[in-house]
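Extended Data, panel c. Modelled sequence:
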Amino acid sequence: MLRPIYTLIPLVLLLVQVPEVHGQCTTTNATSCQCPGGGQECDLLPDLTISWYGLMNYLDGPSEVAGRVRISGSTPNIGLGPMEVRGVDMNGYRRFTCGVDTFEVYDPNAQQQFTCPGGGTAKQLSTQRVFHKNGSQMTSYERVMDQGMTYTSTQGNVRYDQWGIYSLRMPEYGVSDPREWPIINQGYKLGFCLMDYNNCGQAVVNHHCKDDNTQYNSGTTLSSPTDFPNYGLGGGNYSCSMVRQGISSGYTDIYSEYLDGMWIDIPSGTCNGEYWIVYEVDPLDRVLESDEGNNYTAVPFTLTQQTATSPIATITSEEQAYVCSGGEVRLRANAGLAYQWSTGAITNSIQAGPGTYTVTVTTYCGTAVSQPFTVTELAQPPVPVVGTAIICEGEQAALLSSEPNSLWYDATGSLVGSGPIFETPPLYASTTYQVAAVNEAPGTVLYGGKQNNAGSGEYHAGAQRLDLSALQAFRLKSVKVYAGSAGWRTVELLMPSVCSGTRVPCGCRPVSPALHSTSISLRGTVTSSLWPVPPIYGGAAPALATPTRSATWPPSPEVVVGPPTIITSTIGRSISAAVSVSGNRSRSRWMSRSAPVWPKC
């Protein structure tokens, strides 16, 4: 969908406000550009904010229907320099990533089409151009950002991935940062096309630009060019270009509620009442700014269109509910007005050791008591028994552990083997190895969504997605797709964002979703999306067959849930000093048994 830009042509030309141009402060002349503290040499950094006034009032504020709230976001740059993002660097090069590999292509006008060697979808890496003042001289440098950008062929531009995240939350007493409040649900803009949509002096964005936008109903409005020491630096003409885009100093970019992705889905079980919308831009701090701590805001919003339901109370764990001796996990209740834990705590979350817990939660739907939630203590494995080996110089030693499920480490703590037997490489000096016994409790394989198709299906080569919410920790192992012919497709897991190409043979089979041949663990209450994406630049991938005739593509995520792998042992008799390292998120400590090896005859 194209971003419309509306131009009002007044009958009286004197009513048009023309941005003041600072002739002595431009991207080529730094004479009158201001540095912090009045200095003569500095980086002129941007300072991005998100307007609470724009969130509340632009296009009459958020609009609500049953199950969804649409919002608009205005992101003023109040810094001393522009926020400039480049798809083509100053030397004419573009950068693309294919899995773990990065490619540079000389393409100064961004006209070439790029596909990964062997197929697959590439992500484009962008650079941030930072302007530097040294007296009257203006220079600049570029920094490559590890944040990908997505090319959209329908709009002919590149978009900055995950530029904005917005959520519906309930405030918690004693918690000042709204980003830490209990969450109902969240949405995120998969890509922003950055541009100078309005300058801060235009009436349509009056009160959007403030010196502090983090607090609702606070901050001093910045609307005059004199409110910005380097007003207009950047040129005031950034647009959705393949080469460069950005936001000049004293300008704002706006994404309106009618654009794709600008909404928060309201889950069932959410009753009408008073909530807060929390909005954050550049949440991963990929952009270098003068202030990284003011990229968020929060505004109150009253739901009035939701269907009344019975109250619910739930407990979730940010990690698996299994701990070592003395360990704890954080238990969290669903968002509510008040909480009462079986421990006596009245907060949204608690730290909990082994035991069984309940919580009473009061929401706008009423009051409910949760099902009991048990935190289980895992048993420690037995001490591994190993012996000393004596070999001749240049020979290999076979080390034996009494525990079949063992991990072997070298003297620096690097993993070198597993199993009851470890064979060393040829040795020419005395060496010490360490072994740890592992107590592993297997998880349970579950499937989200349909395990198989329920109809004849249909084909498409477009980008569709499956949305899923992780209400407790789990490991995403694979997703099942249906392909009519072999070819490269990208199955992308967003939030957290990872991406790689996967060759899908003909037929139905599970594929690893952009995990670089590993599994990924999701912890806490997060919302993710799985996308099958065709190649970015031309050469359409073979179509995927959807399991049903619905308009969406629902693959079946296969997840492994259950206790994590706990690596632990206790100190035993050893010739060399034992080494203490941290367990696998278990908050316990374990000691490795050492196995010295002496090469001698």
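The chain has one helix and 47 strands. This feature is highlighted in the accompanying rendering.
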